[in-house]
Amino acid sequence: MAALHGRTALVTGAARGIGLAIGERLAQAGAHLVVHDRDAAAAEQALAQLHGAGLSASPLIADLAEPAAPARMREVLEAEGHLPDILVLCASVETRETWDKLSEDAMAAQTEINLHATVRLIQAFLPGMVARGFGRIIAIGSVQEARPNPTHFYYAATKAAQTNMILNLARTLRAPDVTCNIIQPGAILTDRNRAVLTDPAYESIVLGRIPLARLGSARDCAGVALLLCSEEGAYINGAEIAVDGGLRL
């Protein structure tokens, strides 16, 4: 796999889970990792882990629920000399509510982060990628797009809409060496869903739907992200890549 030396990767929601796993893998390949999160303490813990492994990384604390946050993030990174060549859209809000219990607050939060922040981040960082002649945008979607659970009624819809935006860019951008793709994780054992997925009764149901008969780990998503960012993945554009053990089938 070709190294990413000289590249900068901004991964949103990178203090833990899939974001951290992807960020760590890109840093291992030589990229400078910008660890974005709204939780400063968690970001510092992630940075300690990364620096302890000899990897290049810096923090970027911002709340994507604030409309002006992406523009401020760009200003900070430009001042630091860390404008990203790679943007991984991992930060999201996932509220488990059925259609009949769906609250206004849940709809607003998921819309703001999963959709509005996606647009603002693309507007902040994609023009620079196009101007420099290299860019990778990766959105972290969800198996919920293909097989939405009733408890993820609105979350699944926002992820499907996010994927539509990324595919629109992939088709219409027409910028050489700037690609836009989606990774769609399945049942991945992260802090956010650990309590649900380790409940014996629910775990049994989930495993029964997965052909590989095991839960995934955050690291299962990292290799795909590295491929999409590398020279070997330069001709992959507009792909929806499931990392779900076959759960979508």
From TrEMBL:
Residues 7-191 form the Ketoreductase domain. SUPFAM superfamilies: NAD(P)-binding Rossmann-fold domains (SSF51735). InterPro entries: KR_dom (IPR057326), NAD(P)-bd_dom_sf (IPR036291), SDR (IPR050259), SDR_fam (IPR002347). SMART domains: PKS_KR (SM00822). PANTHER family: 3-OXOACYL-(ACYL-CARRIER-PROTEIN) REDUCTASE. Belongs to the short-chain dehydrogenases/reductases (SDR) family. This is SDR family NAD(P)-dependent oxidoreductase. It comes from Bosea caraganae.
